[in-house]
Every structure is written in structure tokens, then in C-alpha cells.
Amino acid sequence: MVPRRPGVLDGRADRSALQPAIGEPPRMTSSWFDLARQSILNPQAAAPLLVATSLNPAVVPLTLALVAVLNGLLYGLLLPVDFFPGGFASPIVLAALVGAVVWGSAAILAVVGRMFGGTGTTTTLLRVTLWLQILRLAAQVVLSVVGMLVPALAWLIGMAAGIWGIYMMISFVAAAHGFETRLKAVGVVGVTFVSAVLVLSVLLSAMGVAPVEV
User: Fold this and answer.
1) What's the pLDDT at 109?
2) Which intervals hold domain Yip1 (predicted)?
């Protein structure tokens, strides 16, 4: 039997190679670029692929460190020095803070999700959070370049990306917790956001960091 080429079926466009057939378990794409594209265009289909991917245990902590460092460097380059109070202007301190926030957010997502009947672990939610952080970081770089050329366009794209990013987060959280409906994921994301803001505010206050005056 001659194998059929993926992408063409009886003269019609076949479904994406990233999308598993009905009844098949999700399978990982051979290209992270393809998964990134699918995550942006169809996050509901891409989320189960990421969650079901088998990774080396060392990948997640290494990715967390990389994301923290890249975010620290990006914020250090884009934002003015006087924007950060005290010693937070240092890229090293920023990287440590970003890493703590990302890990803490994943932990809260896991705990709150289980309160809603989910099954996701902190490791799974950390994988999801890191993946979305990588996509957000890439989008931030693109927006920075566009902002230097056409500031108004960058603002519009940024608004659209922010709204779509919330939908992506809901889709990935739903997949990580095994929710049958994304409505529960909306509640998890909302409660997590409020909890993270409260925890961060308490920590910053305990460290003697006052709110930035505008």
C-alpha cells in the first residue's frame, strides 16, 4: 500500500499534521516552530499536544532559568532605569523576580485548578506557563521593533495580542487540568490572577518596595 502524503486527501486540503485523528492520543509535532504557529492560530488544538509531550525532567528548570534571564535582559533594555525602585534595576534581580513570579503563578494555577476539579500538577502548569512566556517574549521583541517604526500600529497589535493571549492561556490551562469546558479555566485564570497580585503586593511591601509613582 502506497503511503498517502500528509496534507492532501482526495484533492482536498487535509487537516493539520499537528491535529490528531479522532480517537488518537495527542502527539507532539516534530517542530517547535510548528507548535508555536499552531499555539497562536489554534491554541485549543495545540494545548493538548504540549501537555502530552514527554520531556526530560531537566528541560523545565533549564527553560525557567532561560526565560527568567531573557525577560530580565529585555526589561532592563526596554524600560528606563528609574522605572525600577531600589536594586530592582539590576537585570540579575529582575531575572530572579521573573523566575519566582513564573514559578509561583504555575503553582497557584495548579492549586486553584484542583479546587475546580482539575488534575494538572505544578510541573505541567509550569510547562504551560513557560511556553506561553516564550511566545509572549517573542511577541514583545516584534512589538518593540514595530514600535520604533510605527508606534500607533504597535499599540494596536499589542492590544490585540494581549486579548488573544488571555484566550491562549485559558485554552492551555483547560488542557493542563483536563477540563471538558473552558469555562472552568476562565475561573481558574481569574482567581489565579487576583491571588498572584495579592501575593506579589505583600512580598514587595515586606521587602520595602513602594509602588511606582506615575
Assistant:
1) 94
2) 38-202
